[in-house]
Amino acid sequence: MRELTPETITDAVLDQMATTPDARMREVMAAAVKHLHAFAREVNLTPGEWIKGIEFMTTVGKMCTPERQEFILLSDTLGLSALVNGLHDSTAIEEGTHTSLLGPFYRETTPKLPAGSQIARTVKPGSECALYGRVTDVNGKPLANATVSIWQTGADGLYDIQESATVVDYRGVFTTDAEGVYALRTVKPVGYSIPMDGPVGGMVKAQGRHGMRPAHIHFLVGAPGYRELVTALYLRDDPHLADDVVFGSADDLAVDIDAHDPNSPIKGLPSIRFDLRLAREGAADRASGRVGSDPAAILKAPARSGNGQSQQAAPAAG
Ligand code: BEZ
Ligand code: FE
């Protein structure tokens, strides 16, 4: 029997995994093992630290419910989600509006609303604003009938999903008109803290970080023949624009609230204009997926075997 050492164990694992039939899985897992082992060697990981890491990941998993995705929050706070978004943008066949975090509070079940609707159930005096913009291709050609899904928090900095499993608030799906314009009423977005009551919040606090996201509104935009766009607008004057705890904000996504924009299709309200440029869909785009999900969809997703095929659900006990 050969003797494995900290110097030889990595190659032994890679040799054994070399039989993986799926080429992409083989590539991803080999790189993951190399970097994981290199990390353990670099910090000289102790058994106590190893078990702390296992306990941490276990707690992260236990926090996940149909309304909360603590693993996405972990990915976001470690900058992994923003990194994968950036890598995704760099594979587009043309450069559209950049991607920003979907975050853990997207909901698939969002009502379709007529243009101009107010998406908030309650609007405090002075907080109402219009939100509009034009969806175009990268050359400025308007895209009619594009779908624009929007979600944000209320003035308390909480998403509907954080307060109720069933009540839908501060979100809606709109369709662009013949000029590619979408328009709605909402409330001014506010900066808020990510959930700090779980293991990820504990990590952020232990790192001396503030946990704040700058004021923003999320967008998921689709049009046939174009690459799906997940992005967000950010208020330029937010103090955390440059140090978003989840690394989603960017200067090219920053906007101002205009008190008297003569071009706003909704009169008598301060307005935010956010135009969106969609890249044409490339051959591999549909299969590439998105960074983020409705938390309920992740729990419903069938277990995958190594070759990406769904596995039969185990029969219920008893
Ligand atoms: C959000 O913007 O909804 C969000 C993104 C990442 C972590 C927490 C919240
Ligand atoms: Fe958000």
Tell me what the structure shows:
By secondary structure, the protein is an alpha/beta fold. It has helices at residues 9-17, 23-43, 47-62, 70-77, 80-89, 160-163, 199-206, 295-300, and strands spanning 128-137, 147-151, 171-175, 181-187, 192-193, 212-213, 216-222, 229-235, 254-255, 271-273, 276-278. The protein has a five-stranded mixed β-sheet with strand order 3-2-7-8-9, with no helix packed on it. The structure holds benzoic acid and fe (iii) ion. Fe (iii) ion is lined by residues 103, 213, 216, 218. Fe (iii) ion (FE) binds at residues 103, 213, 216, 218.
Explain the layout of strands and helices:
Elements: H1 9-17, H2 23-43, H3 47-62, H4 70-77, H5 80-89, E1 128-137, E2 147-151, H6 160-163, E3 171-175, E4 181-187, E5 192-193, H7 199-206, E6 212-213, E7 216-222, E8 229-235, E9 254-255, E10 271-273, E11 276-278, H8 295-300
Parallel strand pairs: 1-10, 1-11, 8-9
Antiparallel strand pairs: 1-4, 2-3, 2-7, 5-6, 7-8
Gist of the model:
The protein is α/β, with parallel strands linked by helices and 318 residues long. It has 8 helices and 11 strands.
Kindly report the spatial arrangement of strands forming the biggest sheet. 3-2-7-8-9
CATH architecture label of the largest domain: Sandwich
Overall CATH class of the largest domain: Mainly Beta
* Integer-rounded radius of gyration: 22 Å
* Helix-residue proportion: 25-40%
Biggest sheet, in brief?
Answer: 5 strands, mixed
Low-pLDDT sequence parts: 305-318
Number of helices: 8
